Structure formats: C-alpha cells, structure tokens
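Sanity check

After download, print the first record. It should look like this:
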Amino acid sequence: MEKNNDKKYFYNRDLSWLDFNSRVLHEATKNRNPLFERAMFLAIASSNLDQFFMVRVPRLIETNELDKINKAVSSMIKIQYKQYRNLLLDLKQDTDIEIKSYEDLNKDETFLAEHYFKNNILPTITPVEIDNMHPVPHISSGTISLISILKNKNTKEEKFSLIQLRANQNRLIKLKNNKNLFILVEDLIKNNLKYLYKDFIIKETAIFRITRNEDLEILEHASDILDIPQEVEDELQKRKWGTPIRIEHSKNISAKIKTFIQGKIAPDTEDINEINGPIDLTFLWDIEKLNGYQKFKYPPLKDKYHKQLKGDVLLLHPFDSFKNITKLIQTSANDPDVISIKQTLYRVTHHDSEIINALIDAAKSDKEVVTLVELKARFDEAYNVHWAKELEKAGCQVIYGVKNLKVHAKCLLITKKENNKIKYYSQLGTGNYYPAAYTDFSLLTSKDKITSDVANLFSNLLGPQQNNNWKKLIVGPLFLKDKILELIEREIKNAKSNKKAEIIAKMNGLTDKKIIQKLYEASNSGVKINLIVRGACSLISGIKNLSENIKVYSIVGRFLEHNRVFYFLNNGNSECYLSSADWMTRNLEKRIEVLFPIEDNKNKEKIKHYLDNVLKDNVKRWIQLPNGNYKLVKRNKKEAKFNYQEYYFHKS
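Expected structure tokens:
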C-alpha cells in the first residue's frame, strides 16, 4: 500500500514527545491533583525538557523540524511559568508556604535574608573575574550561574564577574524558623552582591544556565577496553564538555550581557530562552518533600504482599508491593537449597537499594550470585558503576553488558535443588528493579518451559555458546520484531476471513516504521486497534482509508505508565504478552529485550480486565487527534468519574 509509506502519515517523534510533556504539565493545573503534587508535576516537566535538550535536540540541528520544535518549546515554557505563578498563589492562599522574590520581602524579611547571606552563603561562593588573564571557567550543564558587569569605583574600569552555584547547593532558602517563607538562593546572591564586590558599582547582574549536548554513546568500542567501569567514568567526564546547545537567562537582560554569554560562554548557541521566573523548576521537588502537609499530597500507598508466591503469580506494581520481589531474593539467600541467583539490572535506585542489599546478603550466604549490570543505561551510568563495584566487593560475579547492545530485559532466575533435582524459579518484568511510582507488571513462575528459557538467556548473556532454541520467550533483537509483525499479520488474516480480530497494545513509545505500517495495514483490513502510548507516538490515528480503525490514547497520572502489555484477540483464542520492550526501533533492533506470554487463564483475564479499565478511564486519559495532537477524553454528564489508577490504589 503506497499510502502507508508516505512521510506525512508518520508524526514527528519529537513533536509527539513534546506533546506528551505538555500533558505532564497539564497535571499541574488547579484541581487536577493535590496542591503539592502539582508542584511535583511542574518539576517533572522541567526535568523532562532538560533531558530532551541534552539528548534529542543535538540530533535535530540539521532537520527541517527544528523550527516547529522551537515553537512548541516556547509555547510550553509560557504555560510552565503561568502554572508556576498560579501554584505560588495557591500555596500562599491554602498553606503557610510562600516563595517570595527578593524585591517582595518586607524590611524584617530583608534583614533576615542579609543575615543568612553573610553567614551561610558569602563564605562559600567564589566569584571569577573574566578577562584575557582570567578565561571563562568550565560551566557544567544545568548549573545556575550569575554574570555581573562591575565598574571599579576608583578607576571606572568595567569588567565581568561570574559566580556558579555549587552542584549540591539547596535552591530554596528558608528565612524563618517558625514559618515556611522561602527565597531562591540565586535571588539572594544577586541582591546581596554589594557585600562581595565592595570596591565596585554593580551595573547589572543576570542569572543564566546553559544546557550541553550529552548525547554521548558509552562503550562504543567495548571489546578493546580493559577496564570497563573506568572507561564509563572517563566517558562521563567527557559529557561535561559537550557543546552548549541551549541558553536560558533571566528576563530584561542587556544586549551587552546577552552578547557576552553568547560570545564567551556558549558560542554559536542559537537556542536562547528568556525565562519569566526562576530558571529550572526542579527545586519544587523540595516543596513536595515538606512534612506536615499530607492533605495536600496523594494518600500514601500501602504495601500489598502475597504470602505465597506459588504457581504463576502476576503482580501489578506499585499496587502490589515491589517488596514481594525483594523478599523473594531475601528468602532465597537464606534457603540452604538455593544454589544460585542471577539477575539483570538496567536501572537501580540512586540511593539505598533493597535489591542490591538482598543480592549482597545472598553472596555473603555463599550463594552464587551473578548480575548483569547494564553500564550503558543513559543518565544512570555512574550509579550503575557504583552498584557494580559494591556487588563485586561482596563477592558477586558482575557482567557489564553485551557488546554493541544494551541489555534492557528484566529477568531474575533462582536455581534450587528440590528432591535431588534442579528446579528453576523466575521473575520476568516490564520495569526496573526498584520500588518506584511506576505501573509495571511482574510474572513469577516456576513453569519449566519459561524458566528453562530464562536459564538459557543467562547462558547466552554470560558465555560464548549461543543457543537460540526458545520454547516460550521471544528474545530481541533476533526474533522480537518479526514476532510482533507475525502477531499483527494473524489478526489481519482473521479480519479478512470475517473472524474476530482485535489488538490492544500498551507501551511507552511507538515509533518503529515497519510496525506502524503493519498497524495501518491491519486497520485497513478491519482490525479494531486500541493503542495506549504514554509518550512519543509516530502513528497517526483516525485517517480515512489508513487508520480509521485505530484509536490512540495516553494516560498521565500519579504513577508513571511504564508497563508494556499486548493483547491479540485471535478469533476468540486470545493471547496476552508482557515485555520489557516498546515498539521503537532502538528497542526492537539495538537491545536485548524479552517478550513473554501470559498463559494462565486467570492471569490472562486479569490483564484483559486491566486493559479494559485503562480504556475506561475518563479522568486521566487523552485521545490522539488526526493531526497528532491530543485532547482529554470527555466524560458524559451522567457518567461517573473513573480514574483507573485510583481504582487499583483502593483495591490494594
């Protein structure tokens, strides 16, 4: 079909992703979420946009879409700061929390601010003069900085001076012990520079930050490297020197300072944003962490445990506690019949990790513990190096990944001796091994055909011999994409034969062209298709004679939608699959991923019920329009509100 190969029927993935971030930003709107959670969504949207510039924008410099993307970003920033100002008003109105600009402080508050500056900030900052003898120091990506034009009171000579905030500097400064009155540290510094530059007239000070290109591939030539962790750490240092790709600066700065930043600090940077408010809103996470304001936060999630993990157990996280997985490893560590524990680790929590602790305890209990720690997990490389070293210290065997591929599969294998025979127990998941505010599935099983496949997968990952005779698992990149195309093709044949045909697929991203073309073909063959795609989606739904049988939805709520769930009706003999992989080319061709079937009828019903509930959501569900944009699904006046995440929250 000629039509489904036309470029205009594939929506730009970056514009689609920006639309997703706009949906995140929408959650900061009044009455969408509790007050403190609105602050969190503003922080998330800000962090998301930073990563977009660090990774995606460097690849877009030469494309024709950059103007559209810049317009979308500019519009998003305006909305972002409108939401921020609304948040400040609501915090002041509904709580005792106030974030003030320095110019709005009263006399007593100004006195407190000056006192705090002199005692806590002034001794810690180091201004740097910039001239021919004092070159511009390196400014890390994302660092808030202040640039001042100073005029010597005696010589009348003008010069530039630079101050960078420390990486660990708290942005929010509390001025009163008995009241939550805050100012931002950069605002405090800017308005007290007279105590630092006593011999100068401060003509102007601007606040700015630069974002650098961090689209750096780690371990491209891993086979030639002797010390992999050290190489990763060396490569991460190079990221700090990436080319500046974005400048953000405070409003109303002079042409002189703007020219200086563009010419001396971030040469040739064309992406320049004037910010009508504080640069970088991720400091709002500190608001969400304040104690004593529970009524302005989501109610806490209860830990739901399963006492017996027998048979095929399907867990829906976070409603089923992730501690079920941790407990499984802890129990295995203390079981004298357990021989070994093997696990893949893609992302690990940045702080204390229960999974890592459980694996270390198992190693100390003389179990064979083998972990594959993926050192190429973007933005988590340093943390993964740290955890790999901790595991090695404890006596675990650590593998650093696979040459030319990322290991994104989520697998745990426990080998045990039972009745003088070797027995495998396995966990397969859609998400990472730490408790997080993500929706994910875990399958715990002892079925031989699946667990022997998991054992074979670890053999392939660890050893030289490759065995690709799989009984149940579909392992990428060799077999995964073909299997997905095959499953879609079967629904096409069923539809053409007037048999029942339907696809429901839930994932984080859908950008692979071949998969999209196959879905267009399925739509034209009469297959009913519901897609639930959290983020970037290059497929465009609702186009006559192309995708009129396809609906695309997106859920943005309290918990990040992270599971990958696939349902194929198959003329009533339905099949369900879970996977670590999205339908994106990087997942299907450049990563080791696993697609695994759910065969237990009770668990299949549980998954179908889950998907039906997602599609029933009329609070957090968005629908894609034929132009690629999204709007919230409208609820009928007689229809009761249904938030699917809240439904499972109250069931837990």
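If your output differs, re-run the checksum step. Summary of this record's structure: The longest strand covers residues 200-212.
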